[in-house]
Structure formats: C-alpha cells, structure tokens
Specification:
Elements: H1 3-20, H2 25-48, H3 53-79, H4 81-103, H5 111-132, H6 138-160, H7 173-189, H8 193-221, H9 225-229, H10 233-257
Helix pairs in contact: 1-2, 1-3, 2-3, 4-5, 5-6, 6-10, 7-8, 8-10
Length: 269
C-alpha cells in the first residue's frame, strides 16, 4: 500500500472518529476504539486489493450514521419511557373523536380542534411528569395530579362550551385569570409543598369569586339570566364552580400533607 493511500486512510479515520462522537457517551466510551480500528482495517484491505477506498469509506460513514440515529433514539426512549407513554395515550384519546367522525355526523372536529385538544392533553401530561419527578412523595404527586387534572378540565370546558353562558361570553376569561393565580403562585413557591398549598388555596378563592363577579357583570349588562348564564342558569354555574373549588382545595390539602420537600428545586434562586 502506497503512502498516498495510507495518508487518505488516516484522514478518513479522523473524520470517522469525529462522527463516532455523536453516539451517547457510554456507548462511545465502550465501542468507539474498536469501531475505529475495524474501519481502518477494512479500508486497508480495500487499498491492498486496489479497490475503491473512497466508496467503502462513504458506505461505512452512512451505515454508522444510521446506527447513531437508531442508538440515540433508543436511548432517548429508554430514558423517557413515561413521556413516550404520555404521547401514546394522547394519540389514543384523539383517535376516539377521529373514529367517531367516520360513523356519525354529530362529531365534527376540525384540524384546529385536534391540535388544541392534543396540545392541552400533552401539555397536562408533560406538566405532571415534569413536576412530579421532583419528589418521590406520594402525596406531592397526587396533589400535582389533582391540580393538573382540574386545570385541564377547566380549560377544556371553557373552550368547548363555556362555563358562564357560551364559550363566547367574555366572563369566561376570568377562569384563565384563575389559572394564572395558580401558575404565579407555583413560581413564587418554587414548587415547595407548603407554598404550593397556599397557591392552590389562592386559586380556590379566585375560582369561588368568579361567579360572584359574573353576577355584577350580569346586572351591569342588563340582559336576562338565560342570555348571560346560559341553560345552566345562575345556580348551575355556582354548582359547577363549587366542584372546581373543591378540587383546588383537595390539591392544596394534599400539598399540605406532603411534608417531604421535592428532591430538587425546579426554579433557580
């Protein structure tokens, strides 16, 4: 083998070594040296037989790159099994209205409906996964689950049919303010159990005040209760709000009982 071929092989090996760094660190540390040597040996065999070294090198680059993609995808899925499960569950839930649309005209979801529903479900699932990972305490995880589920149901109903009257009633914007109370409270609490309990109690108070404020808005507009509050009426709105208040309080109670602090603090400072 001439010097020119040997020089080319060394150059290809350097490039190949750079490519191997795209493997996950444990895999790279374990197999990279052996793979580099195999790569070099095959190129030298091709050069000794006076066959195309460049074609062989390109083929091995492509084959190794595909192996890197497969290995990294496999590694990511193994590390994030719960996230994969969440995505799978969301996809299964969205299949229900999609299948129903094929058999009945009563279900008429648009692409925007599917995107919104998927975003809500996926966001709720990932939020729970992110926050619950911070603590091994069962009460803390249960509190997060109740809070996330309550927020999801509140937004879903509000966007679908509205809580106060129809979904177009501007009074329903108050409920997004209720969620903001909980969100800001969680940031201030830095996800610590005691502070989270206070944030949920504050959210419950905001939820309870929403229909009271709606009464003042109704009187100010001078329209009928049926027009403003919809078919549920004033009593129905207050009953539904009581359900949400109870859920926020349940979450707060669980946070209060979660005396063991999370393993880490998600927010700096």
């Amino acid at each position: 083998m001439d010097k020119k071929s040997e020089h080319s092989i060394r150059r290809y090996r350097r490039w190949y070594a750079t490519l191997l760094r795209l493997y996950s660190k444990p895999y790279h540390e374990r197999f990279s040296e052996e793979m580099e040597q195999t790569f070099t040996d095959q190129l030298r065999e091709r050069a000794a037989d006076e066959r195309g070294v460049v074609r062989c090198a390109l083929w091995m680059f492509a084959e190794t790159f595909m192996g890197i993609v497969r290995q990294n995808m496999s590694s990511t899925m193994m590390k994030n099994k719960r996230i994969v499960v969440i995505v799978f569950v969301v996809a299964c839930i969205l299949m229900a209205p999609f299948v129903a649309m094929q058999f009945t005209d009563e279900v008429t979801w648009s692409l925007l409906d599917f995107v919104a529903a998927g975003g809500l479900l996926l966001g709720a699932g990932l939020t729970y996964e992110f926050i619950s990972r911070l603590a091994g305490n069962t009460a803390y995880k249960a509190a997060v689950a109740v809070a996330v589920a309550t927020g999801l149901i509140l937004v879903w109903i509000n966007l679908a049919v509205g809580i106060i009257g129809s979904e177009n009633n501007s009074a329903n914007l108050m409920y997004f303010g209720v969620l903001q109370i909980g969100f800001i409270g969680a940031i201030i609490a830095r996800l610590q159990p005691r502070g989270m309990a206070r944030a949920m109690y504050a959210t419950a108070i905001g939820q309870a005040l929403a229909p009271v404020i709606a009464l003042f808005m109704w009187n100010a507009q001078g329209v009928s209760a049926a027009t403003f509050f919809g078919g549920a009426g004033v009593l129905g709105v207050f009953v539904l709000n009581t359900f949400f208040v109870a859920m926020w309080i349940a979450s707060a109670t669980l946070f209060h009982s979660a005396r063991v602090k999370p393993k880490e603090t998600a927010l700096p400072g």
